[in-house]
Design brief:
80% of the residues lie in helices and 0% in strands. It contains 10 helices and no strands. Helix 4 runs antiparallel to helix 5 and helix 7 crosses helix 10. It is globular and about 45 Å long.
Length: 209
């Protein structure tokens, strides 16, 4: 029998496949994505990760047991490490990591922080899990397809790694552990998946001023 996290992922698999075939993601694999477009995405992702870290912190504070405290603390530390990857891009490519959040980024961060502030820890996990599981999926799917000379190979290697898969699985275990109202969990999971697609859409629609 499928776990809660497995069931939610399977119910939203069509959105994951849409993300995999997205112009932005395919441009990463081919290496053909415009550098300015990727730089814009990295800057927006830095703003997103700031909110993602804060959401982990609120989940940690709401954890009803010691296992949750430890797990969310470790996940928070890993998200902070991911920000260091962005700093590497910034140093090499002159990425602005202090961009104003665009509408897609704001919609996603507002969603996460509202759930974190107002809902129980299992619901917070449902809102956060799609990001982690989707990126692990994308990295793993792109690993064999990405050209060796793609300037974005580091992105693929980060998200296809066993370490990132372990982080995604750890968050899924927390979702399975704490659960919540199943109808609400389904709504939150799907909304996060839809917001992920909007995030990629915003990157490819961005035009340099």
């Amino acid at each position: 029998m499928a776990s809660l996290s497995q069931s939610l992922w399977r119910r939203n698999r069509v959105l994951a496949e849409a993300a995999l075939e997205h112009t932005f993601v395919q441009g990463i694999a081919s290496g053909g994505l415009a550098r300015a477009m990727f730089a814009y995405y990295v800057g927006q992702d830095a703003a997103f990760l700031d909110a993602f870290c804060r959401t982990y912190a609120l989940a940690l504070a709401k954890s009803p047991d010691r296992e949750g405290l430890i797990a969310f603390r470790e996940l928070l530390d890993a998200a902070a490490d991911e920000l260091r990857l962005h700093k590497g891009y910034a140093a090499r490519w002159g990425v602005d990591l202090h961009q104003a959040a665009d509408s897609a980024t704001s919609a996603y961060t507002d969603f996460l922080l509202a759930v974190a502030a107002l809902e129980p820890v299992g619901h917070i996990a449902a809102a956060m899990t799609p990001c982690m599981r989707l990126y692990a999926y994308l990295g793993q799917q792109l690993s064999a397809r990405t050209k060796p000379d793609s300037p974005y190979r580091e992105w693929v290697e980060t998200y296809s790694s066993a370490e990132f898969e372990a982080l995604a699985r750890r968050l899924e275990v927390l979702l399975d552990r704490y659960g919540g109202n199943h109808d609400r969990l389904a709504v939150l999971y799907r909304q996060a998946m839809e917001l992920e697609l909007r995030f990629f859409d915003a990157a490819v629609r961005w035009e340099k001023p």
